[in-house]
Fold this sequence. Notes:
The chain is of the alpha+beta class. The protein is 46% helix and 20% strand. The chain has helices at 21-28, 32-42, 59-73, 78-81, 86-93, 106-116, 132-141, 156-168, 183-194, 202-210, 250-260, 263-283, and strands at 18-20, 48-49, 55-58, 121-124, 126-127, 130-131, 148-152, 173-178, 214-225, 228-242, 246-248. A three-stranded antiparallel β-sheet has the order 1-3-2. It has a three-stranded parallel β-sheet with strand order 4-7-8, sandwiched between helices. Helix 3 (59-73) runs parallel beside helix 5 (86-93) and helix 3 (59-73) crosses helix 6 (106-116). The protein is elongated.
Amino acid sequence: MPTKTPRHRPALPDDEPRYRSGAVARMVRMPVATLRIWERRYNVSRPALTPSGQRLYSAAEVRRLGLLKQLTDLGHAIGNLASLDWTQLQAVANTHASTVAGARSGAEFVRLYETFQPSLIVLELHLPDTDGVELLRSLAARGCAAPIVLMSSVDERVLAAAHELGVNHGLMMCGTLAKPVPIADLQTKLAAMAQHDPQLSVDDLRRGVANGEFVPYYQPKASLVQSGWVIDGVEALARWQHPRLGLVMPNEFIPLAEQSGVIGDLTNAMLSAALRQVKEWQQQGLR
Length: 287
């Protein structure tokens, strides 16, 4: 009587993280049934088995399955992809220069970044399981060279602070967008970055100064006294509330202002706004 020889399964290492099939299916966005079909028919992965028969996948297998799912969503047949190694799969992915992918959690974002290698990142500051600031640090640690746009419904000062943190970490920060974002604004910013368009002109700068679009953001200054820390001043930081591009940071407009000679008018506008704010604080009893 013929017998079926079981396939060899890799042993379970003690120190490598493993994921159950249900978790893997959620991470790569496919039904568990589809995952099982891919394994039976195309041998796309060989998860380890526990003594009780539980299938456990390594991080490398999850990355491979995620990339396979992306490529099949783009129209590639799983039968043509299943035998390809990681380098070959990435080569296929690189043929899709305009592919867009999204992540709904910080963990999924990190996994997607490693497999997708994006040419542009639009990052929401508040994901369900992760602070966007931590993701910026993670991107910096990975040597990310892709342009980054921050988008969130939080106070614009929080967006501005996160943008500056990204700049300080050496990331290519390309502006912020406050939610809800008009689709025209998003399309304009993304198209401009894709075309390496500087976006801002001297005429745009002059118009912004004349229309009062430049506003000061105040950063507290503290001194340590005998009783503790005391706020004894603020620093006024220029921000451009652009009607089309959203909040524009100084690194994007100060060089243009200096080169064009508009820096004097911009300085006067900021100084006037700051003095008006000081007067208002004094009227409220703040000294």
